[in-house]
Design a protein that fits this description.
The protein is α+β, with helices and mostly antiparallel strands. The chain has three domains: 239 residues, Multidrug efflux transporter AcrB transmembrane domain (Multidrug efflux transporter AcrB transmembrane fold, Up-down Bundle); 66 residues, Alpha-Beta Plaits (2-Layer Sandwich); 239 residues, Gyrase A, domain 2, CATH 3.30.1360.200. The chain has 17 helices and 17 strands. It has a five-stranded mixed barrel. It has a four-stranded antiparallel β-sheet with strand order 3-4-2-14. The chain has a three-stranded antiparallel β-sheet with strand order 9-10-13. β16 and β17 form a beta hairpin. α5 crosses α7. The longest helix has 33 residues. It is elongated.
Amino acid sequence: MAAPKKGRRPTGAQGRPGRALAIILIAMVALTAGMFLTKQTTPRLGIDLAGGTSITLKAKSEPGKPDAINETNMNTAVGIIERRVNGLGVSEAEVQTQGRDHIIVNIPKGTNEKQAREQVGTTAQLYFRPVLAFADGAPAAPEATPSPSASSSGAPKAEGSGKPGTPATPSSSATSQGRVLSEALKAPAATASPSPSASESKKADDKAPAPTPAPSGVEAAAADLQAKFAALDCTNEAQRAAAGKGAKPEDATVACGKRGDTWGKWILGPAGVAGTDVKDAKGVIDPQRGQWIVTMQFTDKGADKFAKITGELATKQMPQNQFAIVLDGEVVSDPSVSQALTGGNAEISGGFTQQSAQDLGNMLSYGALPLSFSEDSVTTVTAALGGEQLKAGLIAGAIGLILVVIYLLVYYRGLAFIAIISLLVSAILTYTIMALLGKGIGFALNLPAVCGAIVAIGITADSFIVYFERIRDEIREGRTLRPAVERAWPRARRTILVSDFVSFLAAAVLFIVTVGKVQGFAFTLGLTTLLDVVVVFLFTKPIMTLLARTKFFSSGHPWSGLDPKRLGAKPPLRRSRRTGSGTGSGSVTAPVDVKEA
């Protein structure tokens, strides 16, 4: 007989069950600890189980676009709003049109209502505008107009700052500010007069002072901006809401923005880059600096525009070397620039929290709504299902589970113990992960999601049954329990993996091609199918290996579910081998026991 090759585990090897059990135990402890540390000890419930908030949005006609409110734009708006508030599609927010110009958004209880209300109606009209002037948000005194000056605590360099810069000290006259505005608006400064010839100038000096020329249209616009800027009070909610609204991209404007707990105000030049030029944006943590930033990727045309505007601003002094990121008329960031930013990628850093960075990246990434909306009403809605219906459903589920356990006990006897504790481990993992996902990605458990979890219980039980039946088949062939457990595993493993792959593939396809509540069903089904693989590999198989070493199971106790007599096991195989003297005078046969390895 050839010796087994070194380094190769022989058939029937026991493996290391203790290591696998330790891994799954650590995972369970870590998930449970995370659940308590985040104070999310229960899964979030969907609106059909817990109620929530209903927001009604009304579409508004834009000037010059009387036909903008149509079915196509409304459906587009529904899709964008749903992606904003629904994340992966599992937070169970419901978004649907009502009538010609209304959208209803139902948000489950437990969602940040303030944040959701900001997300659902925000049009996210984004522009990058050069900064012409900046001051404190309160209105200026009549005798002096604030003018920007370099500040040691101004905005950071090229990458940008997450919050508007530091208010400037009023140190320049209205004339110097008007000169800056006029230059930015491509016109001579407001105080400039036509340049006469040298001879005409000398004659004029000998006679009388030249009259002040009438201001041009651009000069009048600059003066009007100065007046608006001086009178603007960004601490007043009504004025703040009106500032910058309706300004055309090609026009200069005034705007408000918040830095920490204080408001500031800006005079901004014509837009150099639009939000449609941003290809992708997201809030991420910078591993080197350990702070939250917003990364932006521009389209090809947007990259050229951004390189041009940053190249122009880099040659100027503070604050004219800053550009303001204006979102729906409000300044959300005013980074300074020290060089042209080329390559189509940029980041905004400084002052962001995780929430503010992700919110900004979320709105910019999902794009602008095709329509403007006003909030018509906000109401609290009760659960679509009453407490009695939910209680009745839970009772029905418990009865079904008890019947399954009774069947396992009757048919598998001692093996039912392994199946039950495996189901318990699967339930713990599922519960803790769902609770943490409620905090992490806004996952909400609704009735379809519960149905997905119940279906997955059947998938998990089926995996146990496949393995148990393979073991019983090996015992029927005459093997003892310990080699039977190990020899049955490879064949059972293949069957389990194929079955779970098919279930997961079906869940993935369902999640991709559907929307709304059906996505919750698909998400839960896919999640629990993956957990089935984890539980069977890291718990059921190792625990079966350990129990096979106990006398109760290895001896084939009648209540173990592995009794050879009850299973109809075959006796050890016997065959005859003929031996002789080689003389041809006769032969003697001796029975030889042959057992399969």
